[in-house]
Structures are given as C-alpha cells and as structure tokens.
Amino acid sequence: MAARLPRTMACPALVSRRHLYNSLLTTTSKTTSHLHKKPLRASLSHRAYTTTLPRYSEPLVPRIVRGESKLFSCADEAVADLKSGSTILSAGFGLCGVAETLIQAISRRGPQGLHSLTAVSNNAGVAKVGGLALLADAGQISRLIISFLGNNKTLEKNYLTGKIAIELCPQGTIAERIRAGGAGIPAFYTPTGVSTLLQEGQIPVRLSSDGKVLEHGKKREVREFKGRKFLLEEAITGDVAILRAWKADEAGNCVFRYTTKAFGPIMAKAATLTIVEAEEIVPVGSIDPNDVDLPGIFVDRIVPATAEKHVEIKKLREVDNGTSAKKETPEIVQRNRIAKRAAKELKEGYYVNLGVGIPTLATSFLPEGRTVWVQSENGILGMGPYPTESEVDPDIINAGKETVTLVPGASTFDSSESFGMIRGGHVDVSILGALQVAANGDLANYMIPGKVFKGMGGAMDLVSNPNNTKIVVATSHVAKDGSSKIVQKCGLPLTGAKCAVFEVDREKGELTLTELAPGVDVDEVRAKTDAEFRVAENLKSME
C-alpha cells in the first residue's frame, strides 16, 4: 500500500511555489557547491527563478501532521495557532449544535490576537448569549456570509452603521456552496434567487457609517436549461471549520444528534482544518460504523465540549388540564382563521414545509385522521408538535429555532439534503408568510431597505420550484400601518418571482378572489387591496 502523503502534497497540482523554490534551491546547492560562481538561475517555462526565496505571507491554515494524535486537552490549545484573516466555517443552526466551547476559546484570544476573520454560518447567534455574535460584537469578525440575522439587533445595527460586512445568501444555496466546496466542485447552477436582487448583485454588503452603500454583492451569471433560468453559484471553502458533535472517537469519527447535524458534516468537509468539540470522546472502535455521520478523514483536532447548550426559543405545547380556554384576541382569531384556511391545502400523505409565524399553525387545523409529513429546512422530516416541559431537547428545533418533537417515522439530516428535497420539487406544499404579494405571484418577505434587514433564510429556496411545489402565502391582508400587502407590483426586494384566498395565474399575472372571510364583503377587500383582481363566479365563504 502506498504511503499517505501530507494533505498539502496529495495533489501535484497543489504544490506551492514556495515548495518549488525549496526544490530548486536544494538541487542547485548539490550540483554547484564546488563552483565559485554567482547563484545559479533556473529557467522554467521561459521564466527565470532565483534561488533566493522571495517573501510570502504566512499561510492561514495551521500545520497539519498525519499520524499525530487528534486529541487536544482543551479548546484554547486547539485554537492557539489560528491566524488573523482566516475564513472560519461555523456549524450549527441558531444556537443548536453551535461549537460554543471553541467560539469562547477564540473569543479569549481577543481582537488583538485574532481579528479580520471571515465567518460563514447560517446565522450569527444571539447577542450576549452565544454563537458567532460573541466574536462579531468583540470586533474579531470583519465579514459574515450568512442567510439570516433573525432578531440580532446588535448585529443589524453594526451592519447598518458600517462596522461589519454581511453577505446574504439563501440558506439552501449556502449549504450547497459548502457541500460543493468539500466535494471539489467549483460552481453549480441553481434556480434559487432568479429575478431577485441576488441575481443582479444589488444586495448591499458593506455600508458606510452614514448608511451609504460601499459594496454590493456579486452579480450572478444566468443560464437557461429546458426553458428555466438558473444562477451560477461558486463553492465555499474555509481555512478552519468549528463544529460540535455528540460523540467522537479518537480517530475523528463523529456522531451528531438530531438537528445538530444541519451544517456540521458539510462544513467539516469544506475546510482545510476541522476542529470538533465533542460531548463524549471514546476509543477507536466504540462507534458502530453504521452510526458514523462524519468519517475521521475530515477531522483534524478534537477537544472536549465544556460549554453548556443553549435553547434559543423554548416553546411548549399547552396541556389540557380541564380549565377554561383563554379568551382569544381579535389578532389570534384572525391568525387562526388564516391558518385554518391554509390547512385545507394539505392533503393526506403530503410532504409540507411550514414557514415561521402563521404557517406553523396550519397543521393544528387538519381534520382528524389526516396525516401529513412536516419538513423543516434545518433537517427534519416528520416534525411533531411543541414539547411538554419534560420532552424539551435542545438538539431538536424547527426552522424558527423553537423546540419541537419528532413523530414516529421521522428522520433528520443535514441542510444540503434538506434543500435538495426542496429545490428538487419533492415537497408538495410550502406555506410561508409575506410582506408583499403581487398580482403575478411575485413574493417579498425578507427585507425592507433601510428598516428591516433580517435575511432571506430558506425562503428563496422554498419558492424556487413553483411548478412542482405549491406555494401558499398565509398572511394578513394589510400591514400594521394599514397598507395593503397584496399589490399590483412588489415594491420590496423579491424573495421569488411568480410563486403563489387569492388564486394566482402566474402566466397571465392575474388574481382571482375565491373566498371571503365571514363578515367581509368584496368592496372592503377592494379597498384594502392595491392589486386588481377578478371575483370568482362561485365565490365561497372561508370556514
């Protein structure tokens, strides 16, 4: 069997110029040591290379030596040689599965010891609680590549005042870019983001202190396949990946629990150096090969996980204890009515994805005996209701970072697998909220320029294949300020084009009113709708 080469020498095409200079220097030293002449110059491809080494910046990746133990006594030791300017892939979803032990160790190095980092993650954690927010708030991160800011007001403020650059990228696209990077695929085409600001490269990345745009995102190349447009996305790789595993053996084989695997396995494969913090470290051979989620070839360092797990949003289901039901406010009545109508779109055996907010209520109104499989884009198929207090598990959350349960027959997987289901059209129905919906089915639900900058999360992916996945928008008719959410043309940045009770004819760009809420007439709907619409001949009442 051939001896294993060091990682930097595994492919001749990747041999560095520094190594080439060293080889030349060694050769000329042996062949000219008896001559008293000026240093020999060697010619390669008609270019002269002196034997004097030029100055190169230090490599950003710490040294990796095959054969040495992967075990480190603590996280501080494992991150001691990380370098400023590195690109770090940080696994986890919300606060679930985040490498808190390693993040805290990086934080202890301070902005003087480790700075100018580019961090890639689904989101940036919660200020003063956990996740990358700890490093971003300390000024150690200069650039973030994420899909969702969520309610991190500190990070949003730092972005809007020019203290940090943020590249927004759809969640499924980030996952696939990372997966491609780990598989040696330089780029790929995706339907996600077509006809949006992402395609045009118009999402602001860096602002000045007074809010002027200093840098926009990169414009995407567009190509058509079988009559559909697709965007070219480039792979993402990192210098270092940090992730948390439930169990790891001394060879680096890792096991993840439930939704903690959202980004861990794919990020480990896309980094030159991968550091794993494990809740349990076991001898080689202790993990059944069938249970390995991440093979040891992708892991370089292992440390004990000592930081506590956080639950970002602990959501519990109400237990019927015989007491009288709480009085419902008009807002709750409205939300329930919308969710009840959305539930009618869910047929027996359907695979469905539910967005945050009103969409999550839809399954509560399914007829008795009807079964659907709820998919959550962070990596669940077979999501159940909220847990009771005794059922809470920080490793099982939904796309809204809320605690949930799993139904019998459920499965969990990483985000690239999840969005393959979504983009591939395997999900029957996707229900999501909206800021605006246009007459032609255009949807805007992630940004109000200058006011709201949360990110698109997985929404752009969810609406990327409306020919195979039915898109249902569950939202109130008007915004809090009284403005109509149903418009002739979206004035806000689009989440998806021609996607979406109005019935949408995506080809003609027409809306048809098919149902009315109790107590509401057509004239009131017209008064609160900016878009033109037809009224169905058999207009029904929402039940």
UniProtKB/TrEMBL annotation:
- What keyword terms does UniProt attach to this protein? Mitochondrion, Transferase
Q: Does the keyword Mitochondrion apply?
A: yes
Which InterPro entries has this protein been placed in? 3-oxoacid_CoA-transf_A (IPR012792), 3-oxoacid_CoA-transf_B (IPR012791), 3-oxoacid_CoA-transferase (IPR014388), CoA_trans_fam_I (IPR004165), NagB/RpiA_transferase-like (IPR037171)
**GO biological process entries:** ketone body catabolic process
Q: In which pathway does it act?
A: Ketone metabolism; succinyl-CoA degradation; acetoacetyl-CoA from succinyl-CoA: step 1/1
Report any Pfam family annotated for this entry: CoA_trans
Per the UniProt record, which EC number(s) apply here? 2.8.3.5
State the source organism's domain of life. Answer: Eukaryota
Catalytically driven reaction(s): a 3-oxo acid + succinyl-CoA = a 3-oxoacyl-CoA + succinate
Q: Which NCBIfam families match?
A: pcaI_scoA_fam, pcaJ_scoB_fam
Q: What does this protein do?
A: Key enzyme for ketone body catabolism. Transfers the CoA moiety from succinate to acetoacetate. Formation of the enzyme-CoA intermediate proceeds via an unstable anhydride species formed between the carboxylate groups of the enzyme and substrate.
The entry sums up its family as follows: Belongs to the 3-oxoacid CoA-transferase family.
Q: Which protein are we looking at?
A: Succinyl-CoA:3-ketoacid-coenzyme A transferase
- Species of provenance: Talaromyces pinophilus (Penicillium pinophilum)
